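Model it.
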Amino acid sequence: MNKMWIIIKEVYRKNVRSGGFLAMVFGPIVMFAIIGLIGYFVGMSTMKDSIGHIGLVQATPEVQQALEKADTGNEFERFESDKAATSALKDGKIDGYLVVDESMTPLSATFFRDKLGKDIDVRPLTKALESYAINQRLVKEGIAPATLDSINNTHVSMKTSQMSFDDAGNAQVADQESMAMFIRTGVAYGVCFIVYLFIMQYVSIISQEIATEKGSRIMEVILSSISATKHFFGKMIGIGLVILTQLAIYLLIGLIALMVIRTMDLSFVPKEVMQTVVPLIGTFKHDIMLGGVFAIMGILTYTSIAGFLGSLVSRMEDVNKMVTPLVLVGLVGFYIGMYALSSTNNAIVRIGSQIPFFTPFVMPFRIAAETVSTNEIVLSVILSLIFMVLSLALSTVFYKSNVLVTSDKGLIQTFKRSYQLWRSERE
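Modeled.
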């Protein structure tokens, strides 16, 4: 047992103290921070550039009033001629001007802007002018102004609700567009991305960890003092502790961020949002707990198989080729999860949620959408647990058989040889 702990400490110490671990931990945080900042500044810039100071040429006071009443966010100024508006645009006094021709039926309009100036969004202007033209047509048809205002203020509100039925047949209705649904979907997306991130990172790490010693021909010396099973579990536990360390760092960063946010002035956030979102976050412990269970089983399954694949190679340069099929399987699961984000009742999603390779990616979305029964959740947990144990057991058994075998053949041929050695050992 002491020898296995030596391996565990060595694997853990080597990976945690490396610069690659710091990049692996803080790389995603920096990436998301940069993407978030870019998205924020692009959004703010787009919003700012989509509105401005607009000139109106040949527009009647009624047209100007209609545009101002539409609340497009723009400021309007009337000009008597195209020449005056062009001069103002050239001097930077306006961001563009609109020429309205009411002599045509329906009216037409042309917007002129500086090629190097703001990209004014003309869609609100078009909608306001269309509404004005329709109102003018209705007035000509003899519609009273009071009736016209009533027509313009008529709006239809429609929302989507989901109905579910319990074992007793009682119907339960939930608002599909509620804040709770958005938060639950966000939790599912977070679980899916974390599983994908950890699988992509640690599949390569565990396979290289095992292939390094095998490729250096020192495995015989190691196995002379410790069994192959203990050696394999030592490697797996060491990598598992590295994973837990990374998760602990993320948890600590999250707690620090939460403390900082609580000390900030959040007066710019609407009170309705704070009163609605904050209480809801604490009600999704069930979703977070199940997501964590699926994530742990998925990561353990993929890393145990990666350890087995790493034992099949004889050279470090062959590691990537050997684990590529496993990475592609994880990639397929991730894309099925992204598909489940918008279609949780699709047959591919329903079947994929019960396949252990895909369960950690897909099932959280079905749980968030409440399109899965308790029996299906229990079944998926049992299947994932059985598959995880089998993967770990088979990886351990075959690791004992092929850890000392060197071969330059491909994955299938090497696996066949490993299977033959395992059968011969049993005989």
